[in-house]
Design a protein that fits this description.
elongated, 24 helices, six-stranded antiparallel sheet
């Protein structure tokens, strides 16, 4: 085989056994440097080198692969060693031999080494393979005591095999995880079934934590009896870090953006990062974003103003932060933070970077914090979404020894991107919500309307939910004859669209109320309006049935003279009445269909109410917030309304406290009103014949009544108004004619007849005999109008009383 090896050309590069014809080859190396000092014929035959080619050269130059760690330690300790080794032949191929190293002391006291190579035993290849295996392997006997281990295991524990042999793992390595491994090995020894576990640990000579997968297998003899166990420890740090990063990303996708709140979303980003891979995180948004404006381009010149919205640290209270939450953070244009904002890419920094040095020089507070808390590694990641840069997140390390690396930056950019989208959604939602609230509140009564007919108190609570502001609304509308209309409604939908639709509906109700339509007729007109404007009110028909209602509404008119309330409702919750004795009830009221379905009439109900009764009008957000059960909500509402209250404001508070959770899911509108009555001394009524002579009698009667009321100064004007209205009734209508004066906050004059034709103003020409009466009435009074009655019509006019 030696001659065959000599005939092979250079670069054969294949492993093969040494020649059987030369069983032993011997060389001599002198001193600690391992220089070859002797070269025998057997060595020349084995490796093909002449003596002149190798003498004086390091013996290690003949190795095709490094010796095992155990061999190197034996050489360092000047003790003998033998085992498999790979040598390089002169023609380039590799020989696997059994190499023996034996130290010798020369006559002059110098150290010499005898190197002996012989063809290896087949078992030596397995030993050599195990010794060179980069995976840590150990073998334990029946008592679970160490019997053998390869170099990788020795390196992991930091101790040589002779010092460990015969010991249990827990005896030479500290840590609860290794005690658990001892128990696991005993279990495998006892049951003969393999087992595995995963643990974190720090290998000998290193500071960073590693992840390990540990497998324990039984070792059996030829009879199948378990004689020991083998333990294989694989370093799975890369896989562990990959899984951990994936877990963090998954957690970020579920925990970031749980609310549509900008600051809460930013805090969720900081909390996740600190708990998983950073020691301190701060989130700063552009000041324009916090003001609700669209973020513009980051300026390339001049300082940039951020607002600290969130921060978190492994240290309680986040003491290393240079800026408090809520405070502005002014950053110079030369800082890496602004550069990251301009480029849109995250950056890695150590505290020795020139950019950070300049930044610390600009900001001494930040520089002192970095020194005091030992901050050594920083990542700056911009928060960008939909092509818009909103701010940035700073990730710091001061308690974790390892600096951030490129993989950490990729992870930070991933969760920052998710957070940025959530922040942008929250910003857009907040802006739309603010717009909708502003629109909605401008359309609600600015203050409670106080009249002689009703005392009113109201509440409006917008929903705290992702859905946004809804279309709930209420109104109090003065009508003629000292009457007052109470209305509450709810438009389907959320956001600005619902608020705008609510505004149109409220305006329509006020317009129709000014015409003084009856409640059922008013709802019919509203229904037609919603049908015509179907898309704007969020209605639709799917498969021939209504997919959504456009709006619900309850309209009630209270007459303080008749002590009567007329109610009609379109799909809305019923009116609640609290009688003066304190008993609350829901009088029978035809419900009607919601607005927008069209085609069916609405009905009214008239309720006779004693003075001091309390009316409660509300939207379904009030009673539907109680576990979504309307019936339970009505029971609780009845109970809340019967609780003692000194004022209507207290009544409203009782209702809200008794029915609403801390965060209602829907808008809530509540309108309460206590009835008052006009007594007989404030109302005077006369019935007149349809004879022109009755006009003069009517004037005299009115003058006498004005005197009894002490309104002599207004008597002349009132006589003129009565004269014109009664004359028109006699001329254009049939009897009977009713004249009524009501003394309230204003003086109201009403003339009723049986004609349904409404008069109107017109410009009289020079020679016209008529056409000037209503013009005169309009000039003499503050307001006038006409309303239809079951028997005809009523023309009314009001004068202010000083």
């Amino acid at each position: 085989m030696g001659e065959e090896a000599g005939r092979r050309g250079p670069g054969a590069g294949q492993e093969r056994r040494g020649p059987a014809a030369v069983p032993v080859a011997t060389a001599l190396a002198g001193g600690d440097g391992g220089l070859l000092t002797a070269w025998g014929d057997e060595a020349r035959t084995l490796l093909g080198y002449e003596a002149a080619e190798v003498l004086g050269r390091p013996a290690a130059a003949l190795l095709a692969a490094p010796l095992p760690g155990l061999a190197l330690r034996r050489v360092s300790a000047r003790t003998a060693w033998s085992g498999p080794a790979a040598l390089r032949h002169r023609d380039g191929h590799t020989l696997v031999v059994r190499l023996a190293l034996q130290p010798l002391t020369a006559a002059d006291g110098t150290l010499q080494w005898t190197l002996t190579a012989e063809p290896p035993d087949p078992a030596d290849l397995e030993v050599w393979s195990l010794a060179q295996l980069p995976i840590a392997v150990a073998v334990y006997d029946e008592d679970v005591r160490l019997s053998g281990a390869n170099a990788a295991m020795e390196h992991m524990v930091g101790k040589p095999l002779p010092a460990l042999r015969g010991q249990r793992l827990g005896e030479f390595v500290d840590g609860g995880a290794f005690e658990e491994l001892d128990h696991l090995q005993e279990q495998v020894m006892r049951t003969g079934q393999p087992a595995c576990m995963e643990r974190l640990g720090i290998p000998y000579g290193e500071t960073g934590e590693h992840a390990y997968s540990i497998s324990v297998h039984p070792v059996r003899d030829e009879t199948g009896a378990v004689r020991g166990v083998s333990t294989v420890v694989c370093d799975t740090t890369d896989q562990y870090l990959s899984r951990r990063r994936l877990d963090i990303v998954n957690e970020a996708s579920t925990r970031i953006g749980t609310t549509l709140d900008v600051t809460r979303t930013a805090q969720e980003l900081a909390d996740i990062a600190v708990r998983r891979f950073a020691d301190m995180v701060s989130v700063d948004l552009l000041d324009s974003v916090m003001r609700g404006e669209e973020p513009g381009q980051v300026p390339r010149r001049g300082d940039v103003v951020f607002r600290r919205v969130a921060q978190q640290s492994v240290l309680p209270g986040c003491p290393e932060s240079a800026v408090a939450v809520g405070d502005p953070d002014i950053v110079p244009d030369h800082s890496p933070a602004v550069r990251a904002m301009l480029t849109g890419k995250g950056t890695l920094h150590s505290m020795e970077d020139d950019d950070l040095r300049r930044w610390r020089a600009y900001d001494p507070v930040r520089a002192r914090a970095a020194v005091e808390y030992g901050i050594h590694s920083i990542m700056i990641v911009p928060l960008s979404a939909r092509g818009t840069t909103l701010g940035l997140a700073l990730f710091l390390r001061h308690r974790t020894a390892d600096p951030f690396d490129a993989d950490d930056l990729l992870l930070a950019e991933e969760i920052a991107a998710r957070a940025a989208v959530c922040v942008d959604n929250a910003r857009r939602y907040s802006r739309e919500r603010a717009t909708a609230l502003t629109l909605q509140r401008t359309m609600l009564p600015l203050r409670s309307l106080r009249t002689s007919a009703l005392e009113v108190a109201t509440r409006y609570l917008p929903a705290n939910s992702r859905a946004g502001v809804c279309g709930d609304w209420f109104d109090v509308i003065p009508l003629s004859g000292a009457r007052v209309a109470l209305v509450v409604g709810d438009v389907v939908g959320h956001g600005v669209g619902a608020s705008a639709a609510m505004g149109r509906l409220r305006t329509a109700v006020r317009t129709l109320a000014d015409v003084d339509l009856a409640p059922d007729e008013l709802l019919t007109q509203l229904d037609d309006l919603v049908v015509r404007c179907d898309p704007e009110f969020g209605t639709g028909v799917v498969g021939g049935s209504a997919a959504e209602v456009g709006a619900t509404c309850l309209y009630a008119v209270y007459d303080p003279v008749a002590h009567r309330c007329t109610v009609a409702r379109a799909g809305h919750p019923p009116l609640a009445v609290v009688l003066p004795g304190g008993r609350a009830e829901f009088p029978e009221q035809p419900v009607g269909l919601p607005l927008g379905l069209g085609g069916l009439p609405f009905e009214t109900v008239e309720l006779d109410l004693p003075e001091g009764s309390v009316l409660a009008l509300y939207t379904d957000g009030l009673i539907g917030s109680v576990r979504g059960d309307i019936d339970t909500g009505l029971v609780l509402l009845r109970r809340a309304l019967t609780r003692p209250a000194r004022t209507l404001e207290e009544t409203c508070d009782n209702v809200l406290y008794g029915l609403l959770p801390e965060r209602p899911r829907d808008d809530v509108a509540l309108l309460t009103a206590r009835t008052r009555a006009l007594n007989a001394s404030q109302v005077a009524t006369w019935y007149l014949s349809a004879d022109p002579s009755g006009v003069a009698a009517a004037r005299r009667t009115v003058a006498d009544q004005m005197g009894r009321w002490g309104l002599d100064e207004a008597a002349f004007t009132t006589e003129l108004v009565v004269s014109e209205l009664v004359t028109n009734a006699i001329r254009y209508a049939a009897g009977p004619i009713q004249l009524r004066l009501i003394r309230d906050a204003a003086l109201i004059c009403e003339v009723s007849d049986t004609s349904s034709t409404a008069p109107h103003l017109r410009r009289a020409r020079t020679f016209d005999e008529g056409g000037r009466g209503l013009l005169l009435v309009a000039r003499l009074t503050d307001r006038w109008g006409t309303r239809q009655t079951p028997a005809g019509k009523t023309i009314w006019a009001e004068q202010a009383l000083a």
